[in-house]
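Q: Structure tokens for this one, please.
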Amino acid sequence: MNDIIDKLQDMRHLDWAVRKLSPGTPGCFLKAYEEVNGKRIYYKLSNYDSYRGVFGHECINELIVSRVMDILGITHVTYKLIHAQVLIDGKEIETWISVSDNFRKNNEEKLAYDLFYDLRKKENESPLEFAIRNGWGLYIYQMLCIDYLTANRDRHGSNLEVLRNVENESIRLAPLFDQGVSLLFSTYGDEKAIERVDVMQDFPVNNYIGARSLEYNLTLIPETFDLEIKTINEKDKDYIFQGIDKILMPGHIEKIWEMIWKRWCYFEKIRSKKNESE
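A: Here is the predicted structure, written as tokens:
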């Protein structure tokens, strides 16, 4: 695997001028980009404020969730981690950066899902019904699945994007992206806080499609719908956390795995019960 660059890289040239606030978070997420060999590369830091600097582990979450989606076979933006020296507000900081490529084609423009919905919806049509009418049911149901498994709290209307081909007016949804506010988000490496986390808690979420309950959102998936996903096995733990042991504490890793595994077992249980009832 080559999705983690451990050797410290000098990334002080990046301009972290773009700040993204997320509801319920005490800081912000700084973003940057650059053109490399004609391709745009996007960078994102974990939570940041001027007092603590870069804190949290949202960048690591991006990679972990990316690997879980690899296992399940869900289309998503591929993330990498870079151990880097960055310059923010005149201060040099050693941290980890989440890296992803531009998923848009040259002739595509992006539009936030909530805005596209407002422009194209029918009367009394919900955001979910709108997605199904446009042929995006599988995408949305897979999204509800992975968001439950990883306790993603931040699937707001701009964390889904519609990509429109400006030449032929065709549209598609962007691969799933921006899963950093997930897993043990907000524990910030606090061992006692990590131990106290109930991994099966129905965390309140900022969902544009569905409700504020990840568990309830699973009920929106039709009982006999084929999600076209693969199975998570206990042996997949090694793949998911390869190289992460150099970044997160052992107890942190174990708790994340407990969350993914227990939630997967619950998901399989309720899905099998639904199918048996048919």
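A few notes: The mean pLDDT is 93. The chain is about 30% helix and 25% strand.
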